Amino acid sequence: MGDKLEILKMIEAGNLSAEEALSMIEAIDQTERIERYEEDEVKTEVEMVTGGDASSYKDFDIALIASRLNVEKSNVDDVTIEIMDSQTRELVPKPDWLIFKEEGKCISIQEHRPQTLNDLISFVKNSEQIFKQTLFINIKLPMHTVVDHADISSVSGNLSMIGLKGLDLNLKSVSGNIHLMQIKSSKISAKTTSGAVIIEDIKCAAGIYSSTSGKVKVNGEHSRIKLKNVSGNIRYDDSGDVREVIGNAVSGKIEVRVKSPERYNLKLDSISGSIDTSGFAVVEKESTGRKRVSITDRSTAYAITLGIVSGKIVLDSIV
């Protein structure tokens, strides 16, 4: 709490911008999470999943500061963790500040580096220099592995997952990007402050994707999806049969493309921006400049709700 109060004082003194302060507060929360790992027991209980071999299910608890992370399916017999130089991709020895634990079905990785308020200021203001000092951690999983639960976070490192099957995936970064590709999962949550969220070829029952100032771009199949941004752009292309889409932003642009937009109940709202429905609905314009679309009688199962303050909403059919 003391560090956060100090950040507020720095804003008042004009030494930090609001965006830098937000990134630093997120970074403090991340380092506090890493410190808690030193006190907590690693989860060991193996949950029996009906219809599957419990030995093929893995949990991941990963808390990083600056290192980059990738998790992917591969033709390996057991979980394999490679540590590389982030630029040359050459294998390097594991440093003392990178802690690995494996107990039961849980794999835990924490990046323990000394962290002071001055360190966090350096992370926020000198991201390019920090990138040159980071490691790339590549985790290869056997083809039959299912990620039961993943709780993965980083301050400035990029996070990616490729070709995985999971049940509950949670990824968070302050200034790094999050990239998921060819994932099948019951639930996915991906959040960044200033990085981008890129989701490609996904099959997911419930997805939540957000960024404060980076772009959010998603394509794939969802049953329900929530999208949020402040000053960046949002785009969602649905290739399946999405039943509910919820998107909110302050500025920027929200683009949603679905099959047969005419079957969806629509609630679209722009306070001072614009709405383009591509002819699938009539936009009501108020004298205040506010624009709305409200259709409630098309369906009992399909709905799209989008809201923006000063940007643009686009609804169209996917080609």
Layout of strands and helices, then pairs:
Layout: H1 2-12, H2 18-37, E1 57-64, E2 68-73, E3 80-85, E4 98-103, E5 106-111, H3 117-125, H4 127-131, E6 135-141, E7 146-154, E8 159-162, E9 165-173, E10 178-181, E11 184-192, E12 197-211, E13 216-229, E14 234-238, E15 244-249, E16 253-258, E17 265-270, E18 274-276, E19 284-285, E20 291-295, E21 303-308, E22 312-317
Parallel strand pairs: 1-5, 1-7, 2-6, 2-8, 7-9, 8-10, 9-11, 10-12, 11-12, 12-13, 13-14, 13-15, 14-16, 15-21, 16-22, 17-21, 18-22
Antiparallel strand pairs: 3-6, 4-5, 17-20, 19-20
Helix pairs in contact: 1-2, 2-3
Structure description:
The chain is mainly beta and 319 residues long. It has a domain at 22-214. The protein has four helices and 22 strands. The chain has a 22-stranded mixed β-sheet that branches. β4 and β5 form a beta hairpin. α2 crosses α3 (117-125). The termini are far apart.
Quick check: average pLDDT? 84
Overall geometry: globular
Structural class, by secondary structure, is: mainly beta
Number of alpha- plus pi-helical segments: 4
Radius of gyration: 21 Å
Quick one: how many beta strands? Answer: 22
Write down the oligomeric state: single chain
Beta strand %? over 45%
Q: Secondary-structure element order, as H and E?
A: HHEEEEEHHEEEEEEEEEEEEEEEEE
Give the % helix: 10-25%
Low-confidence stretches: 34-52
Largest sheet: 22 strands, mixed
Euclidean distance between termini CA atoms: 50 Å
